[in-house]
Amino acid sequence: MLAKYIQNVNADYRRIRQQIPLGVLHTKVEYDRVVAVLDNILDEIGEQETHTLADLAETLALSIEAYEATHVVIPDASGPDILRSLMEEHELAQSDLPEIGSQGVVSEILSGKRDLNVRQIAQLAVRFGVSPTVFMPTPARTARLRSTKTRKAHLR
Prior knowledge:
Blueprint: H1 2-19, H2 28-45, H3 54-71, H4 79-89, H5 103-111, H6 118-128, H7 139-155
Helix pairs in contact: 2-3
């Protein structure tokens, strides 16, 4: 009985794998295919966490995440860089961010003359639906900024 069950599962698994690359992604082609399939599944199920395809969507997302962790280099970006990118993505002007402050304050933050404060970071995270940590400096970034400021101070 177990042998017959395994044969059936194997046949079903092969049939599914012809449509959806399951498991470890080895190539960019597999990655692109899984991303497209996941997009289609998410279009179908929306935010229904109890949908029958929700587990498949989560599995595909984990495969994508694993591939990206190994193959995609994410550049080190500052809080202002990330804010600028989000503003472009959402087609926002500096005046469209009252949670930060006036247009002048936004301009100073984007130019690096002023840092984002905790309140601003929290509000931006909510607005853009991201973790507040994306706007916070990493230790390496902070060290690099300090060394740049120190060099500039010595040059004066």
